[in-house]
Amino acid sequence: MTTRTQNKNRGGRVQTSSSSRVRSNGSKSQTQKSSSGKKQKTLENLLEDGLKDIYSAETQLIEALPEMAKAAYSEDLQDAFTNHLNETKRQAERIEKIFSRLGIEKSDTKKCEAMEGLIEEGQNILEEYEEGSVRDSALIIAAQKVEHYEIAAYGSLCELCDVLGYNQIGSTLGRSLDEEKNTDDILNDIAQDVNDDAYEMSEQDKEGQESQSDSNQ
């Protein structure tokens, strides 16, 4: 089974080194059945489920980001979506390497329903809003919801790796976490200008409607 050394982690926690952590016969970690008949999962199982979930999320996002970039009116927002697409591809590749290291089969991955819903929300924006700054504002909100989901997912996985002693894997996932946080910051910056433009457009439309209403009276 696993050969590991123990080190004191933050807060006095005992942390294990993952330098020689290998699953027996390359198989997934085993689960026990409780008296209720349900599988009694371990933190190892939780980590595996989380990795599969974020991998599905990233692969769905790879398909969705080109459409979002094409739909963006702001060039800065187009660039942000395009750059994040490249990052997302690298993040998916990192997870594939982690799968290989832990003996996890990609074919076992289930669709991340949370990401599916977030992407659908973004697609609805394209149908409901005309091209322009207001739609860009809505796209940024949808994109930041995606980022916050990924930040939560990667942050939780990094913590599990810390507890389980998967130091190198945690470091790899930490790079993806940093990228997600950076993308969220970039979207925040872009939103300031886009929202200002959207506000001006909304005010102009409002004035135009009021002027039209006065002329009809």
Task: Give a summary of the structure in a few sentences.
The chain is mainly alpha-helical and 217 residues long. The chain contains 5 helices and 4 strands, in the order ββββααααα. A two-stranded antiparallel ribbon has the order 1-2.
Task: Describe, in plain words, how this protein is organized in 3D.
This protein is mainly alpha-helical. The chain has one domain (42-202): Ferritin, core subunit, four-helix bundle (Ferritin), CATH 1.20.1260. The chain is 71% helix and 5% strand. The chain has helices at 43-71, 75-102, 113-128, 133-164, 167-216; strands at 6-8, 14-16, 32-33, 39-40. The strands form 2 sheets. A two-stranded antiparallel sheet has the order 1-2. It has a two-stranded antiparallel ribbon with strand order 3-4. A hairpin with a 5-residue loop joins strand 1 and strand 2 (14-16). Helix 1 packs antiparallel against helix 2 (75-102) and helix 1 packs antiparallel against helix 4 (133-164). The N and C termini lie far apart (84 Å).
